[in-house]
Description:
Layout: H1 2-17, E1 20-27, E2 41-56, E3 60-66, E4 69-70, H2 92-97, H3 99-104, E5 110-123, E6 126-140
Antiparallel strand pairs: 1-5, 2-3, 2-6, 3-4, 5-6
Amino acid sequence: MKFLKLLPIAVAIVMLSACGTTSKTVPYKTSSVLHIHMSDLQFLGESQISCEYNTYLGFIKSISKVNGEEYVPGNDVKLSIPASGLLNFSGKGMKLASAKLMKDFPDATYFQVVMDTKQTDVMFLGSTTVRTVKVRAYKFK
């Protein structure tokens, strides 16, 4: 009987100990080599794209926001660029978010990822992740 009285306290301690926040920011490295000079490019501007998604039980993912706006399934516009290492995003959320780049810079012929930040808030039986990517847009002269 003494064990049953302590069970709710033990469950509460386990639930609270499973919460936490991690944050990781690394510069983006490309694997392709282009032999061009900055004098060959015209800088168009810089943009930031983001995707927020929830993960449940470690494998069930649900997109909640794309570029700060609520995600509506079926309203998908994806940017299709050959996998050159410059904008080779994995995951559906970032592919949806990258469509904003063509809206912001329709004349761009070259995109350079400057920073890729991923922040994960760990909760009981799941997590919320926000991935933010800063991209510079250029066009050839």
